[in-house]
């Protein structure tokens, strides 16, 4: 290998593999001395070569760069940056610390990494994360590309890569449990559900040691290498193999018609507050990458995780855009969900911006134009932007959908009006008539909080296993245990819990918007009442595959309700049923126990809706009874004649709880007896006086 060091170029950033060597480039404005470290192997304790970059030859403006002939893909490297340690001026340089390249495409030495070594004084080389040079062109995609936007409604399945197949009963080969390869083995299960998109909890390399003593950060919301797949999510320990295994997973999911959406965390990093470790950004240019308090010595904490990325600073904006482009162009992902996205609406001093540059850049970037972009439209200190998040293309996690549906189903009074709005795409939150209803991401549960089973099984959180005396996690869950806290042998309570789960699933999938299902909710996965399992690498988070048989009733119901809504054109409509574009009359009208008499009062717990879809000549009648007693609802006469057919009655035992259109039983009479705490959905007779068969 040549010892020659050439000037290199200031672009692209990172380690770029070229035919005759590797170009290295990193940003650091205020460092006075920069060393490039080369390692002979991923786990070598010390570098085999230390190259001190010459600021006259190897620096252009604030970019340090060098070209090393003869280096090959797989080269392990890192940096050391010296400069002022002056927290009062925002500088925290430490020339002893080995620093990970922010643009590293793969990470090495994760098995030896020690977070504490990056906090205490002195050299931490044996225990530091390093970058790996990756030739991104050296992979056969076999014609794969990000999937085009589906013509039918996107149905998202939020899942954790490791937890999905980690359990010993997963049926996945032992060496592939908890990996991208393990996900590939379970694609037939995902297809059987009927979902067409997976939203993966963070897969960018994160610091799993950023957790309370005795725990590991399992969810992954502690990123440090934003371009690199998380190293332990691969069955292949080789850093280059990790990158390829992620690509294998994406390619396999695409072949199955399933999009890949990444949960990305651009609001903070694993370096934490002023007491945290020096891993990468802090040691290269602390003042550029983070929002600092006015005294410069402390970090603003709008993320709730110790620091806040300075996302609207020019260098950080470029970093984010480069990162997103990489995952789309080189890794073929289909979209992103932005964790605590409202943080990205803050300026360099933490003030909310009316027109945040980074959010507009993400929306308007041509490489990202075909991707799904989803905002968690709030942050950790009260900036709540559901319904007001900027842009023309951003979708939003609809937190109000979650809370309002939970409250209605557990029989809180006065929720009828907001429930009606949630059913038709939340026009109270998104009033612009041209806004697509699908930009509301509707969910009842997500990784953060109770599972669906626990939502109907616990009144209070039970987070003792987290070691924080049950102080962590949300205290407001809008849950109801149906009479007993936790597991029970009482059959009547179990029957009610099953019904409540079906009620929630029915409303989720029959509402306008993009539905999102939490991994395992379809088989009643439980976290035993823990609503904050971020540091639990055990069966509190793992998918227990015995649930597929034990809770086959809920699995069947979920599969069928997804299939029903996927097969009917009205659930693909982009405009709100309450005011469809180009039509003078709404397609939906509101009713109560009696026709034309909806009860919007403070004690109301019922709602009925007549939905007519002229383009497909199909009509539906929805009845939501959150009251605890039987009510006899009056039914309208079908337009065109004929009789109503029963698609869903959550109070009925299987298989009568849900039917396919072609086998839906006829309902006689002009009333329907609706059991307490149940949902009924009727569909117009398939011939319905039109001479045409209804859409199936």
Descriptive account of the structure:
- With 696 residues, the chain is α/β, with parallel strands linked by helices.
- The protein folds into 3 domains: 14-132, Immunoglobulins (Immunoglobulin-like, Sandwich), CATH 2.60.40.10; 156-276 and 302-570, Glycosidases (TIM Barrel), CATH 3.20.20; 577-683, Golgi alpha-mannosidase II (Immunoglobulin-like, Sandwich).
- Helices cover 19% and strands 19% of the residues.
- The strands form 7 sheets. The protein has an 8-stranded parallel β-barrel. It has a 5-stranded antiparallel sheet with strand order 4-3-7-11-10, with no helix packed on it. It has a 5-stranded antiparallel sheet with strand order 22-23-24-28-26, covered by helices on one side.
- It is elongated and about 90 Å long.
- The relative contact order is 0.08.
Blueprint (SSEs and pairs):
Layout lengths: L13 E5 L2 E7 L5 E7 L9 E4 L6 E2 L2 E7 L6 E7 L2 E2 L4 E2 L14 E2 L21 E3 L23 E4 L1 H5 L14 H6 L1 H7 L3 E4 L3 E3 L16 E7 L9 H17 L3 E6 L16 H9 L24 H16 L5 E4 L18 H8 L7 E4 L19 E3 L1 H11 L6 H8 L16 E4 L8 H4 L35 H20 L3 E5 L28 H4 L1 H15 L21 E4 L14 E8 L4 E8 L5 E4 L10 E5 L21 E4 L3 E6 L13
Parallel strand pairs: 12-13, 12-21, 13-16, 16-17, 17-18, 18-19, 19-20, 20-21
Antiparallel strand pairs: 1-2, 2-6, 3-4, 3-7, 5-6, 7-11, 8-9, 10-11, 14-15, 22-23, 23-24, 24-28, 25-27, 26-28
Helix pairs in contact: 6-7, 8-9, 11-13
């Amino acid at each position: 290998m040549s010892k020659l060091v050439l000037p290199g170029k200031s672009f692209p950033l990172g380690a770029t593999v070229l035919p005759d060597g590797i170009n290295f480039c990193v940003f650091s404005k205020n460092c006075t001395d920069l060393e490039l470290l080369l390692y002979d192997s991923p786990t070598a304790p010390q570098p085999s070569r230390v190259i001190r970059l010459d600021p006259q030859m190897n620096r252009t403006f604030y970019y340090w760069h060098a070209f090393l002939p003869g280096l090959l893909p797989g080269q392990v490297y890192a940096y050391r940056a010296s400069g002022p340690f002056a927290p009062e001026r925002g500088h925290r340089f430490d020339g002893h610390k080995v620093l990970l390249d922010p643009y590293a495409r793969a990470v090495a030495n994760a098995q030896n990494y020690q977070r504490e070594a990056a906090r205490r004084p002195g050299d931490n080389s044996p225990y530091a994360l390093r970058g790996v040079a990756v030739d991104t062109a050296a992979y056969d995609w076999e014609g794969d590309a990000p999937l085009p936007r589906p013509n039918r409604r996107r149905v998202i399945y939020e899942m954790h890569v490791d937890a999905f197949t980690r359990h010993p009963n997963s049926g996945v080969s032992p060496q592939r449990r908890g990996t991208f390869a393990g996900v590939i083995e379970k694609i037939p299960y995902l297809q059987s559900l009927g979902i067409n998109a997976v939203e993966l909890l963070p897969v960018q390399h994160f610091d799993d040691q950023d957790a309370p003593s005795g725990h590991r950060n399992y969810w992954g919301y502690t990123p440090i290498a934003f371009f690199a797949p998380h190293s332990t999510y691969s069955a292949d320990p080789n850093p280059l193999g990790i990158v390829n295994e992620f690509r294998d997973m994406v390619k396999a999911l695409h072949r199955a018609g399933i999009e890949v959406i990444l949960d990305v965390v651009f609001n903070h990093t694993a370096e934490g507050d002023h007491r945290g470790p020096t891993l990468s950004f802090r040691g290269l240019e602390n003042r550029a990458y983070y929002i600092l308090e006015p005294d410069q010595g402390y970090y603003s904490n709008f993320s709730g995780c110790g620091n806040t990325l300075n996302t609207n600073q020019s260098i950080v904006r470029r970093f984010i855009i480069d990162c997103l482009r990489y995952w789309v162009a080189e890794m073929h992902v289909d979209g992103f969900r932005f964790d605590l996205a409202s943080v990205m609406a803050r300026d360099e001093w933490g003030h909310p911006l009316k027109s945040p540059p980074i959010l507009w850049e993400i929306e308007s970037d041509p490489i990202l134009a075909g991707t799904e972009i989803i905002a968690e439209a709030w942050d950790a200190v009260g900036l709540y932007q559901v319904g007001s998040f900027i842009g023309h293309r951003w979708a939003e996690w609809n937190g109000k959908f979650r809370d309002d549906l939970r409250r209605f189903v557990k029989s809180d009074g006065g929720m009828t009006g907001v429930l009606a709005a949630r059913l038709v795409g939340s026009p109270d939150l998104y009033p612009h008539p041209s806004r697509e209803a699908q930009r509301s991401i509707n969910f009842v549960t997500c990784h953060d909080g109770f599972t669906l089973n626990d939502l109907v099984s616990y009144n209070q959180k039970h987070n003792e296993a987290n070691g924080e005396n049950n102080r962590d996690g949300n205290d407001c869950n809008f849950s109801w245990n149906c009479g007993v806290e936790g597991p029970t042998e009482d059959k009547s309570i179990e029957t009610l819990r099953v019904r409540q789960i079906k009620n929630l699933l029915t409303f989720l999938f029959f509402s306008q918007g993009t539905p999102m299902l939490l991994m395992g909710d379809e088989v009643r996965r439980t976290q035993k009442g823990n609503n904050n399992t971020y540091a639990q690498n055990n069966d509190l988070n793992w998918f227990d595959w015995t649930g597929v048989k034990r809770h086959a009733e809920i699995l069947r119901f979920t599969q069928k309700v997804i299939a029903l809504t996927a097969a009917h054109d009205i659930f693909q409509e982009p405009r709100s049923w309450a005011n469809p574009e180009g039509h003078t009359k709404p397609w939906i009208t509101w009713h109560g126990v009696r026709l034309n008499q909806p009860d919007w009062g403070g004690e109301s717990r019922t709602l009925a809706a007549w939905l007519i879809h002229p383009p497909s000549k199909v009509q539906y009648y929805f009845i939501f009874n959150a009251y605890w007693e039987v009510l006899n609802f009056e039914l309208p006469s079908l337009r065109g004649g004929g009789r109503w057919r029963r698609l869903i009655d959550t109070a009925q035992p299987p298989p009568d709880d849900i039917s396919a259109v072609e086998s839906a039983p006829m309902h006689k009479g002009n009333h329907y007896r609706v059991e307490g705490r149940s949902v009924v959905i009727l569909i117009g007779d398939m011939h319905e006086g039109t001479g045409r068969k209804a859409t199936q």
